[in-house]
């Protein structure tokens, strides 16, 4: 039973988008005699796991800040938890190419053998793909993930994201927006094509809905150039001209564009403003020195130049907006002077998906009130290299 029976895959594909969870529950119960299954989805901050089948519980607390499911989500490994009631609870990661969605929990009458566990892992993988596809056709799973109402600007920003994590043979990648439910203009984007990874980070101009609309304009202009075969310079210049001719220099967007050659680790960069890139190599954190050029949209027909640097296997890059490194609450020294690099060093044993959360948690702690006074973006890239490929 190490492969998903065709009937399971067919059932998930045929399920109505808002009933994928119920179909998975039915087929898993029938196949392995499970007494119960549960789908838990990560919230927008990735700080808790929330049930889909009981999303409107009155107590408002996540079911799974209890240990085993959260460990499964963090480690991305199956976790078997035997409770005092004698039920064997198998927690399985729900993820698609490194994009962490949540955890699938299966209650079994006895400890599963290897074949059952392998089968359940495959089912969870198929279920994750089905959930991600269904998410475009129903609001059910997004409602389960949000713990408060999103602002209109935040709604636009989350819809514009490519995802929050990617796992690849050459790299691992994670990103996070904060404040998650009210973010305005800061944003990140990425795309992998022909072993070239493009990553962009934007420091939005303004606040609220107008900032989100400007960011959407820039992101889509860069995507348009990229999808038409344009390199970093073409992406930056099209986006800059689009913003300028829309706003005549009154609005502009500081943006960092990176392109990583996955075969060599060579990075090409266009630095058009304030987002910074930092490298963690061993225990040393250093800012990558790049010559800043004009923000996108400041002047007509601005031209941009590419700079380069090289990654070594084991390097970790952080890209942060000025809402992170320049944060200086109550007249304190900026977060980026010392506290940020301490937080980055503390992430050495964490995957990028956890590392971005650590940097942002430390940023919130740096603010005496715990509230961020500016939008913040953190993107973390672990460079593995292809080794002996």
UniProtKB/TrEMBL annotation:
<feature type="domain" description="PPM-type phosphatase">
    <location>
        <begin position="166"/>
        <end position="383"/>
    </location>
</feature>
<protein>
    <submittedName>
        <fullName>Serine phosphatase RsbU, regulator of sigma subunit</fullName>
    </submittedName>
</protein>
<dbReference type="InterPro" id="IPR029016">
    <property type="entry name" value="GAF-like_dom_sf"/>
</dbReference>
<dbReference type="Pfam" id="PF07228">
    <property type="entry name" value="SpoIIE"/>
</dbReference>
<dbReference type="InterPro" id="IPR036457">
    <property type="entry name" value="PPM-type-like_dom_sf"/>
</dbReference>
<dbReference type="InterPro" id="IPR001932">
    <property type="entry name" value="PPM-type_phosphatase-like_dom"/>
</dbReference>
<dbReference type="GO" id="GO:0016791">
    <property type="term" value="F:phosphatase activity"/>
</dbReference>
<dbReference type="InterPro" id="IPR052016">
    <property type="entry name" value="Bact_Sigma-Reg"/>
</dbReference>
<keyword id="KW-0378">Hydrolase</keyword>
């Amino acid at each position: 039973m190490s492969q998903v029976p065709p009937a399971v895959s067919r059932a998930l594909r045929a399920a109505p988008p808002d009933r994928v969870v119920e179909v998975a529950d039915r087929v898993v119960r029938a196949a392995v005699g499970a007494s119960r299954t549960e789908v838990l989805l990560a919230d927008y901050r990735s700080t808790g796991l929330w049930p889909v089948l009981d999303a409107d519980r009155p107590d408002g607390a996540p079911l799974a800040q209890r240990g085993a499911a959260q460990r499964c989500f963090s480690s991305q490994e199956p976790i078997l938890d035997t409770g005092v009631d004698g039920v064997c609870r198998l927690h399985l990661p729900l993820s698609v190419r490194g994009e962490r969605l949540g955890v699938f929990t299966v209650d079994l009458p006895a400890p599963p053998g290897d074949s059952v566990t392998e089968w359940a892992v495959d089912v969870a993988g198929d279920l994750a793909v089905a959930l991600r596809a269904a998410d475009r056709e129903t609001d059910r799973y997004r409602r389960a993930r949000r713990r408060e109402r999103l602002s209109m600007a935040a709604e636009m920003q989350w819809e514009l994201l490519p995802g929050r994590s990617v796992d690849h043979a050459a790299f691992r990648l994670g990103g996070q927006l904060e404040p998650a439910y009210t973010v305005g203009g800061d944003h990140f984007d990425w795309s992998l094509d022909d072993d070239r990874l493009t990553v962009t980070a934007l420091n939005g101009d303004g606040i609220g809905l107008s900032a989100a609309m400007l960011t959407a304009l820039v992101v889509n202009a860069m995507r348009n150039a990229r999808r038409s075969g344009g390199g970093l310079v073409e992406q930056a210049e099209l986006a800059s001209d689009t913003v300028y001719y829309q706003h005549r220099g009154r609005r502009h967007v500081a943006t960092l564009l990176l392109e990583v050659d996955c075969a060599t680790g060579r990075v090409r960069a266009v630095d058009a403003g304030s987002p910074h890139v930092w490298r963690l190599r061993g225990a040393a954190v250093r800012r990558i020195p790049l010559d800043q050029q004009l923000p996108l949209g400041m002047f007509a027909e601005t031209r941009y130049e590419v700079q380069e640097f090289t990654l070594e296997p084991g390097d970790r890059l952080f890209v942060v907006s000025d809402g992170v490194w320049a944060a200086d609450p109550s007249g304190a020294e900026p977060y980026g002077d010392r506290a940020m690099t301490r937080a980055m060093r503390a992430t050495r044993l964490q995957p990028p998906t956890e590392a971005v959360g650590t940097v942002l948690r430390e940023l919130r702690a740096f603010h005496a009130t715990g509230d961020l006074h500016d939008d913040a973006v953190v993107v973390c890239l672990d460079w593995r290299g292809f080794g002996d490929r």
